Amino acid sequence: MSEIDWATELKKIEREYDGLPPEPTPAELTRRRAAERREQEKLRDSALKLGAWGRAMLIICLACAINFWPYFRSCGVGLFAYVAAEGMVVLSGLWLVVWTWYGRMVRTHMFAMAMVLWGLGLIAAEALPRIGYAKPDPAIPPGWFCPAPPGTSLLGRLIPE
């Protein structure tokens, strides 16, 4: 008996007759798949880097803009809004930390950690004098709520006039 597989030989003849190249060998298929996988990884890495730096620019804008806070922030609702905005610097920094950890971006990860520390420093600068750790002026201690004239409601103490 002959060892020729006529079904595969017929497929080869049909491909040649149709003008198609011969079927690739398993080694060629492996090389082609590896090249496609490398190309997909390059595209994924570039998308991750673009996304990380886009997030980083948003955090930089927020961290810089917080220094120009235009509203009342020494006590009351204005202080709580300011601390919440500082908290957003921390949360957005943590968002970038997770993103850069996933993408294995070392420099951007260090930058994200610096932004988290910056936000924590901003919050500490507001909270520490009010909890008694750092007192800038012992005669007038800073407080969370604004002092209210006698006879005003709780809302009058939260919102300065």
Question: Can you describe what's shown?
Answer:
This protein is mainly α and 161 residues long. The protein has one domain. The chain is built from 5 helices and no strands. It has helices at 6-17, 26-65, 76-103, 106-131, 154-158. Helix 3 packs antiparallel against helix 4 (106-131).
Number of domains: 1
Q: Total helix count?
A: 5
Poorly predicted ranges: none
Radius of gyration: 32 Å
Q: How does the major sheet shape up?
A: none
Give, in order, the helices and strands. HHHHH
Q: Helicity range of the residues?
A: 55-70%
Strand content: under 5%
Derived from helix and strand composition plus strand pairing, the structural class reads mainly alpha
Which descriptor suits the 3D outline?
A: rod-shaped
Q: Mean pLDDT score, rounded?
A: 84
Q: End-to-end distance, in Å? A: 105 Å
What is the number of E strands? 0
Structural descriptors:
mainly alpha, 5 helices, rod-shaped, 161 residues
Walk me through the topology.
Blueprint: H1 6-17, H2 26-65, H3 76-103, H4 106-131, H5 154-158
In short:
The chain has 161 residues and is an all-alpha fold.
